[in-house]
Amino acid sequence: MLRLSTCSRGAKTASTLFTVSTSHAHPAAAQIRFYARPPKPSTFQQPPAQKTTFNSTSSTTARAPKTSTTSNIITFLAASSIGIGAYLYQWNQHRSSSGVLSSNPFFDFFSPAETLTTEKWTPVQLTKITKVSEHTSLFEFQLPSPCTIPISSAIYVKDDQIQAMRAYTPVHSVEQEQGTVQLLIKRYSEGQVSRFMHDAKEGQKIEMRGPVLIWPGGKEDLKQWDEIGMIAGGTGITAFMPIIHSALTNPDKKVKISLLFASQSPEELYFKDELDYLVKTFPNQLRVSYTVDKAPAIPAVASETVTAPSKWEGHVGFVNQAMLQGLLPPAKKAITKGDVAQETEQAGKEVKKSIVLVCGPESMVNHVAGTRGMSGQEPIRGVLGAMGYQREQVFRFPN
Fold first, then answer.
1. C-alpha–C-alpha distance, residues 280 and 317, integer Å
2. For the chain: N or C, fewer Cβ within 10 A?
3. ∠ CA(390), CA(394), CA(397), 5° rounding?
4. Beta strand 354-359 pairing with 394-396
5. Where does the record place Polar residues bias (predicted)?
6. How many CA atoms lie within 13 A of 231 on its CB side?
7. For 222-275, how does the pLDDT look when each residue is reduced to its tens digit (9 = 90+)?
């Protein structure tokens, strides 16, 4: 056999080596090694014994078998793939049986999100934009796969350009799987995410995270209440529409709902037609009042063919005690510990369990019930505080 190789050790220029193997030679001299210009037979000397090496390019009298690095890598990768595949299969089986959306970062790294999850941001396609008013639009999204969005929960939307996020309450969420989700968003000059959403186009992918439960408003949850009062401002009505539907369609208990809906103008009384229809359909369960900052002007009729708009019949001005008195469940007086007269009076009455919910712009919430604070459990101030409502009687939705 003739083998050609190069060696660069101990020489400025690589020397060419020739190795001649013979099957008839003495076993001790199975390989004879000489340079390109072999020495004369008379001066030939037996090469000295060398240590067996595995990494040297020099020949040895008894070379140990070389281990293939490529073969080791292939074996390692194959074993790793089998192990990872087995792990992912077992985890997927666990997810399918337990109903977990996504709670393992290792699995999420290898598998794209199947639906909305609180664990990571999920790109969701914006399919439709409907202009509702001058500054407000209804955004409809196609979910990657159907999922259940709990009533009175929030979904976070992220502006990936500046990494800002904002929570919005889905419109008409129901207690069953749904393939789409709608968000009612008003554009504010100082609102980074609201500006980002109003600049978005249909077909664009928007990153979302959630849903996150804000207040338990499902049918079973509502059974604990006899009366629920609501004060909504602007797009804050989206937090209450699912609760209203849940209460009115619950055959097991007739929970009474009362709502004061405040906005800057009648144009921004979102879902007013739907609310008016529900009042007519469930007159014993639902009462709704409206207030706007300023009464709308009634333009002069240009011709007989133009019908003049009807006169505004709701309240005018910011939310005040007069608007709420007689509409909301009454405030419960705080019982002073040791006051026997108060305790006796309360014990003799049939106590109805009620709560007042407040949702809207931060300025409106502060005016009605005082600042929510980081914990959400700050004492009740504002209009409701002046009316005697206690902290356990009022829930302020986060802005």
1. 26
2. N
3. 145
4. parallel
5. 42-65
6. 26
7. 999 999 999 999 999 999 999 999 999 998 899 999 999 999 999 999 999 999
